[in-house]
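User: Working on a comparison across species. This one is Wax synthase domain-containing protein from Carnegiea gigantea. Can you predict its structure so I can line it up against the others?
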Amino acid sequence: MGVNQAPSSYHLSSPSSSSSSSSSLVFLLLLSISYGYSYLFVRKLERGFPRVIALFPVFYTLFVVPWCFPTSMLLRALSSFFLSWISSFKLLLFCFDRGDLILCKSYVEFVAVAGLPLKIKVGVSSSKARTLGVETILKMLLISIPFSVLSFHHAVLTFLGLLLGCLGRIVMPHLDVVPILNQPYRSTSLQVFWGKRWNRISSDILRRTICEPTREILEGFLGINLGKVVALVATLVVSGIMHEIMFYHMTCGMKPTWEVTKFFVLQGICMALEIAIKGFWTRNLRQPPLHPLISVLLTLSFVLVTSYWLLVLPVWRISGRACNSEGYGVEVVENLLHVSDRYI
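Assistant: Here's the predicted structure for Wax synthase domain-containing protein from Carnegiea gigantea:
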């Protein structure tokens, strides 16, 4: 693709300050154009597969945007999760007139809900006055001060990020942040842990895009109970695949080991066994449920052991990786950097 003939200053393996700025600019331009195209054009199409087909370029764009951060595994992971995964699934719901994106009344709202962990609160008056008090500003300063240990630049960025978040709540009070955790240490079963208490952002989007449609289809063939179990397992399998894509971005396109997928497949199988054993224990044997303390200990022990085995160890092996020019996703963004430096 002509990347090898490019000047060394453009290589993503050793980016200069100008190339880093270009990467950020390309990142913002790609998102602005993609969401603008979705909001202004795609929403006018007939719902269903016409919208899905029209959004193929956007899905591809959201898949490659993590390569805009070649030197930061953390930023690649965050952009992969919130954009390549969550935002793509939100747009998929949008294709069928489902989800929060269909409630957005402006382009700014659409971008905020599509790219950030936000949801629209129904029944909240947008005319309710809100102010940014001195106490709030002082709290933001106190939160930002520890980042000055790294650099003044990090502290300023942290403060500005918090300030923009507060201003956003004032301007758009009907938007609410989706909580990530809900006391996972109180989970009495795998079903409760993955469905209600851990990573509510992904569990909510998976429930609406995978679990509910799959269950509705399978209940007519397998019955209500078995259809529900199979839908739960299928949801965790999809979750494993999406986590594998995150690892693909984090490792700069390294060949997948499928350990993450194995982890979620294992969780899904064990969840199905858990539901079956609980039903046999209470209905057939007529025994009382286990004490909540015992259930919590069993659930958390299983999750922690399997997480260390199939999640933590793989992350340790890839920590600190920086991208080079390998992988088609990196090449795409690298070519965009050349275009941005030439015409912008």
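For your comparison, note: The first strand starts at residue 118 and ends at 120.

User: Helpful, thanks.
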